[in-house]
Amino acid sequence: MARMAGRRTLFAGPVLLTVTFGVFAVAAMSPFDPVKAYAGTAGLTASQAELDQLRANLDVDQPLVARWWEWLTSALTGDLGTSSVMRQPVGDVLAERVGWSALLALCAFALAVLAGTALGVLAARRQGGPLDRAVSALAYTLEAAPVFWLGLLAIWFFSVQLGVLPSGGLTDASDDVVSPGQVTSHLVLPALVLGISQLPWFFLYVRQGVADALDEDPVRGARARGVAERRILIGHALRSGMLPMLTLIGSRVPELITGALLVETVFSWPGVAAATVQAATSVDFPLLAALTVSATAAVLAGNLLSDLLYGLADPRVGFDG
After folding, report:
1. 213-218, long-range: CB within 8 Å, 24+ apart, which pairs?
2. Residue 275: what pLDDT?
3. How far is CA 23 from the centre of its chain?
4. d(CA 183, CA 20)
5. What pLDDT, on a 0 to 100 scale, did the predictor assign at position 253?
6. Which SS3 state, helix, strand or coil, does residue 89 take?
7. Please, what is the average pLDDT of the chain?
8. 3 close to 319: Cβ distance less than 8 angstroms
9. Residues of the chain with CATH 1.10.3720.10
10. For the domain 100-313, what is the CATH superfamily, name and number?
11. Fewest CB within 10 angstroms: 31, 97, 99, 282, which?
């Protein structure tokens, strides 16, 4: 396990280097001008000499490779640069926002895994029953539903019609204090929407895996010996059915990140969504590179975690890959 983790870590280095260079290359081809985005309305009346000086101050007058290498060498020493659109160090931007995004993503992921597993087991136990048909139909419907549409629907129902949950933000408009109670109440809807958008895949994988396990010969033999159905379900079918689901953890991380960005935008959650959009449209090289590296690292970590969990759950799987 340690060897596999070490190999994956060494492999992550070149991947992250390639991703960062790709970010600078794509940003260099962008039609947006970072100088005009930084200057705002003042850029409309500024002279060409003033714009050129501002371009030099922002270090965007250098060749692509030179900009990338300067950012990379500084990043390796802990200096991620200064965000031109946020007007503050990139490290401060990430420190202010990544925690809220991680909180939202973790709560939603936990909801998707736990609820999807429970519903999948119940549906597999009574295949073709009312619960199986109802939840399966709902899962296939949610697979095709855009997450931003689910968010707007949740706001209309829970906030507008029922008035039981806030529609967005981190705290109420009249409250400047960020308290645990305020954060919890404002987190419910975005976490629920993001979790529900990820739930169908976990439900369908667990349902199929448990159903296949219940049809295996060892289960038939256990039933013939009079082993309790609950013991069969938990001791054998659930463990076997969970194995395919574990591979989903890594593959769902990119979808989780994308969904989180959309949910944060819909619910005005103070995560990295707004910073990502502004960095992209303003060609903010340092911030854009840092956000992209963070997302790529999360995907690589998710893939490693899913492989480790699969190997721990099934000792027959080796860690040589």
Report:
1. 213/237, 213/238, 213/240, 213/241, 214/124, 214/125, 216/240
2. 81
3. 19
4. 34
5. 77
6. strand
7. 79
8. yes
9. 100-313
10. MetI-like (1.10.3720.10)
11. 31
